[in-house]
Amino acid sequence: xxxxxxxxxxxxxxxxxxxxxxxxxxxxxxxxxxxxxxxxxxxxxxxxxxxxxxxxxxxxxxxxxxxxxxxxxxxxxxxxxxxxxxxxxxxxxxxxxxxxxxxxxxxxxxxxxxxxxxxxxxxxxxxxxxxxxxxxxxxxxxxxxxxxxxxxxxxxxxxxxxxxxxxxxxxxxxxxxxxxxxxxxxxxxxxxxxxxxxxxxxxxxxxxxxxxxxxxxxxxxxxxxxxxxxxxxxxxxxxxxxxxxxxxxxxxxxxxxxxxx
Length: 261
Ligand code: BTN
Hints:
Largest sheet: 7 strands, mixed
Strand order of the largest sheet: 1-2-3-7-6-5-4
Radius of gyration: 18 Å
Bound molecules: biotin
Structural class: alpha+beta
Number of strands: 12
Shape: globular
Distance between the termini: 45 Å
């Protein structure tokens, strides 16, 4: 059973209303929950029940927030943006969706603040070498749920998270408006998603490359089938795979995670 949504708080409602003309598919339906297990679960259930593309599910707090690769996502009340959207991309658009989402979140944060975040393959958003936001894309037949977690305020994160993470407010040393950050991220995502759906994925890939300065040209390591690999991250290709220079030539990393060395 899914909980019932309540009225969207003013902090978010006013920012979304001001940005309405730029929200594209995300302008129509926004659901707010004070607390959920995971916004991805709520959005997934609604997508299965036929929710229209563009549904936005927001929560103040998640009790079972999920990250990539089976990790959890710390989601304390008031400290972050926890949002999932329902998309119904073409097969081609779906391939580049994680890349587009990372770019859009970095662009949205840049528009709402004075920060200039970087992307880390495939779709993390970083600043000063620390993680600011993460994205979890979960696909099923006929839809993809894209879940976005943005660290807005400093919070009592678990020690392992605190060591690798930062927040918008910690970087700016001032409070920020969560609604504005959300509205700018959704506006950027609507626009990048439109590009993908219209067959203009190359623009998205170019935008990703221009925000990947801290990643490209650096030594990285990753695991595949239980074996550790090391190489120099060179670029992403037009399908969003990471191209890494290794001793024997180049390798294409299509999924998983790389670590900087
Ligand atoms: C990652 O970097 O590991 C991805 C983190 C994704 C977190 C968001 S928060 C909103 C949505 N609901 C979830 O349970 N996860 C995503």
